[in-house]
Structures are given as C-alpha cells and as structure tokens.
Amino acid sequence: MPYLIDGNNLLGSWGGPHTGDDRRPEVVRRVAAFCRARNVSATVVFDGHPLRPEMAAQELGLVSLRVPPAGVDADTLIRELVERAPRAAELIVVTSDKALHSYVKTLGASVLRAHEWNALERRLTVAQESGSEKPEHEDDVEGWLRRFGDGD
C-alpha cells in the first residue's frame, strides 16, 4: 500500500526543524529507507518552498516529493491527492492533523498518526540492525505476522 505523508507533521513529531536547517532532507532520507526496506512507495508533501527551487514535484525512486503552489497548504494538496486517487482505500495517509485525518478516512484511506509511523520505522530499524526479522519471543504475534508476510 502506498503511503501519503504529511512531511511537516512527521518532522514536527521529531521536534521540528533546527535553527538554520529545515531537516526536510532527513525526512526524505528516512522515508526512502523505510520504503526500500518494505518495498512500498510514498509521496511526501511539504509546506513551504521546494527542496530544489525549480521543482515543486520530484520523483526519487520509491519516494515522490510534492510542494503545493503558493497560497495552498500541504493538507489541501493531500486531500486533493486522496480525492483523485483511483483507489483511496489503498492509501495510508500519515498525518497528525485531526481534520485531515477525519477527511481522508471518509474517503476510505487508512491513516497513521506521525507517532505511529515513527513506531513502525523504529521496529523496522531494529529488525534490520539485528539482521533478522525473527520475533524475539514466541508470543510476539506481530513479529511472526511480519515474518510470514501477513503483518502489513
């Protein structure tokens, strides 16, 4: 299932930008690593100016970047992307915005809060670092489901 990520919400869940660095490239790097590991695609939507001034839309392998035009916010663009999706029910929208969360759910999309996506990313990182996706405990149902392909 493809992910549609509110990049600013994800960044905000990490403490926001640091002085002199908006940290959006870090969001892109972490989302790209997540996508490669799970063999999924994602579109990250950021408020503000594009990462590359000449491009408001960029394709970076499994990750696409979108920046809304001036006067439009990321939430509005995400709503439009879900509305135009051929199968909204196949999307997983990552946002902590309550209004956006409710709206995309009415269109049939699944929703993860930013902290829930962070938890998925952490579990994936731990599994990669251990070199195995074998569950740590026999009663680790989620681990066994991931191991046998039913945990997505």
What does this structure look like?
Helix content is 43%, strand content 14%. It is α/β, with parallel strands linked by helices. A six-stranded mixed beta sheet has the order 3-4-2-1-5-6. Helix 4 (98-106) links the parallel strand 5 (92-94) and strand 6 (110-112).
Question: So what's the oligomer here?
Answer: single chain
State mean pLDDT (0 to 100 scale): 84
Please give the order of strands in the largest beta sheet: 3-4-2-1-5-6
Tell me the series of helices and strands, N- to C-terminal.
EHHEEEHEHEHH
Count of individual beta strands: 6
What class would the helix/strand composition place it in? alpha/beta
DSSP helix count?
Answer: 6
- Shape type: globular
As a whole number of angstroms, the C-alpha radius of gyration is: 16 Å
Distance between the first and last residues' Cα = 9 Å
Low-confidence stretches: none
How helical, in percent, are the residues?
A: 40-55%
Strand content: 5-15%
Mind describing the biggest β-sheet? 6 strands, mixed
